[in-house]
Every structure is written in structure tokens, then in C-alpha cells.
Specification:
By secondary structure, the chain is α/β, with parallel strands linked by helices. It is built from seven helices and 14 strands.
Length: 244
């Protein structure tokens, strides 16, 4: 299993970069996790678009779905050129019926509903879900195969249930959008110390931080996470391959 950060930013991308998104690969199967602003251009540094096999969307905030429309147009052009196998599957929850309907587009993309109580087989992985604490309904993701696991918190404030959900993961990709001084002031996100606490209590092997803010001294977030988790901890590095 390989995980490659495509974008690392929350809210909006920094110059020439993308919002938080990851490419996960195994046995030739490529799945994109979230498709926000700048992601469609950035992911082509690592794979051709027609080599993508699926997209999973954690929730419907713009920084996680902004590029789905252009992905659909790419699929349509690819279909016309007979270079793209369609319909391309997009997995997302259907709690927002209007947004979910948009995932199915002219026969080139097709929305598939995911539900927190159901595990799905997507490519080589058994994928399970956990509801997070966010202003809109959002699902954390756990990918498992061959005894290995990668967990993505998506956007969330602290939730005790995430500890059990992430338990024993080889890789935890956690949002860490807040500086400590904003805890209790900005809702729906975790701080560096909370991401570290989650990693420590879940007993994961490695912590990678994402959904970063564009302001302040980011090193404070990293040090806060390291203060809670004794294992390897770093900011997600765009283009770096994390092999499990």
C-alpha cells in the first residue's frame, strides 16, 4: 500500500498547490481521496487521470469537492476519445441528497453511496468509515489489506470514537488545522496536540499531519503533535510516498 499526498492545505490552496488530498495505491489500483481546489492538476504529477480507478469524498465542503466538476469533464473527454473507462466511480455519503446527485454526470461518472455502518470493498481494500465532528456530515476512512491499515481522519474536532477507529493503524493521516490557542474557539478541527493524542492513544505506527492552515508558524503545530506522540511524526510532504 502506497499513500502519496497530493495537497496538504485546509480551506484553500497555497500558490501552485492543492487542498488536502491523497492518492492511495495497491496492486495497480489507484484511488484518490478528496478532490478539492487544485487537486486535479496536482494529481497528474503522479498518475494520468485515466489511470485513476476511483474517488472517495469525505464530505461536501468546497476544499474537498471543488475539482470534481473538472474531473467529470476530463472523464467525458476521455470517453469521447475512448481513452477512459466509464462510468468512473465516486464514493461519498448521501446524507446531502443534492450534492450526492451531482456525482453522477452524463454517464461518465457515477455516485456510489457510502454509509458509516457498512464496510466496502474498493479495489484491494476493505474500507470502513467513522463519523467525525464537523459542521457538515463527514466520514473518516480506514483502508485495510494484507494485515496493514491506513486511516484518514478527514475533517474533525476531537472525537473519542476515532481512537478505536484508528487503533493499531500503520499510518494515521490526521487533520491538524488548529493552533492550540484556537481550541474551543474554532470548531470542527483538531490541533496538533490532539492529533498527537489520537495517534498515541490509538497506538499507531506513524503520524502524518495534513489540512494545514495558511497562517502562523506551522512548526508550533508539529511540535505540539510530537509532544503527545512518541512515534514518527511529520507534516504530509507533497509527492512523498509513504509505503506500508
Amino acid at each position: 500500500m502506497k499513500v502519496t499526498p497530493i495537497g496538504i492545505w485546509g480551506g484553500y490552496p497555497n500558490r501552485n498547490e492543492a487542498t488536502s488530498s491523497f492518492l492511495i495505491e495497491e496492486d495497480g489500483f489507484r484511488c484518490l481521496i478528496d478532490c478539492g481546489s487544485g487537486v486535479l492538476g496536482a494529481v497528474q504529477n503522479y498518475t494520468a487521470l485515466n489511470e485513476l480507478d476511483a474517488l472517495i469524498v469525505t464530505h461536501y465542503h468546497a476544499d474537498h469537492i471543488a475539482d470534481i466538476g473538472v474531473l467529470q469533464h476530463a472523464a467525458m473527454v476521455g470517453m469521447q476519445l475512448k481513452e477512459w473507462e466509464t462510468p468512473f466511480p465516486i464514493y461519498a455519503h448521501d446524507r446531502d441528497e443534492e450534492e450526492f446527485k451531482k456525482l453522477s454526470y452524463k454517464g461518465v461518472t457515477e455516485g456510489h453511496a457510502i454509509r458509516v455502518e457498512e464496510k466496502l470493498q474498493i479495489g484491494p481494500w476493505e474500507v470502513s468509515f467513522c463519523e467525525t465532528v464537523h459542521p457538515v456530515y463527514c466520514l473518516a476512512l480506514r483502508f485495510e489489506s494484507n494485515g496493514k491499515a491506513a486511516v484518514f481522519t478527514a475533517d474533525s474536532a476531537w472525537r473519542d470514537e476515532l481512537v478505536g477507529f484508528a487503533e493499531g493503524a500503520d499510518l494515521l493521516v490526521s487533520e491538524s488545522n488548529l493552533y492550540e490557542k484556537y481550541l474551543g474557539i474554532i470548531s470542527g478541527h483538531m490541533s496538533g496536540s490532539q492529533a498527537g493524542k489520537l495517534a498515541e492513544e490509538a497506538g499507531v505506527k506513524q503520524l502524518v499531519l495534513t489540512h494545514l492552515p495558511q497562517y502562523g508558524e506551522l512548526g508550533e503545530i508539529l511540535q505540539a503533535a510530537k509532544g503527545q506522540f512518541a512515534g514518527p511524526t511529520e507534516f504530509a510532504e507533497i509527492g512523498k510516498i509513504y509505503s506500508i
